[in-house]
Amino acid sequence: MKKVLITGSDPLLREMTASLLADMEVEVHTSQRLDEADNRCRQGLFDLVIMLDLFPFFDGSEPTSTLRPKGLRRPSLFVLSWQHSERAVLSLLECGASQYITFPTNIRRLRRKIREVIDSQPAKR
Hints:
By secondary structure, the protein is an alpha/beta fold. Helix content is 42%, strand content 21%. The longest helix has 14 residues, at 107-120.
């Protein structure tokens, strides 16, 4: 079964994002802080990490390199945020985010993007 990690400081956004995955065959994990997400990623590879905060990208913690094992492009990293600045989007993509999605978002489009990632990767044993 595929594994998805949702990380963010807002519990309501975490719950709402997790509810989008309720009918998909995925194992959903959540974390409130980046260090929790980092520890969970070290314990088991995830297919997708969905980040609901931007500050880890701008405070020097380099979340992409801490959440992905060295040399791998997995897990895919989606960032969801209210920030619409083109500069912020380009910075996140340059930092290694796979997708940057702004709120308000089209739920069907977001689910399709998640499904693409989940279906494109072989299941881990």
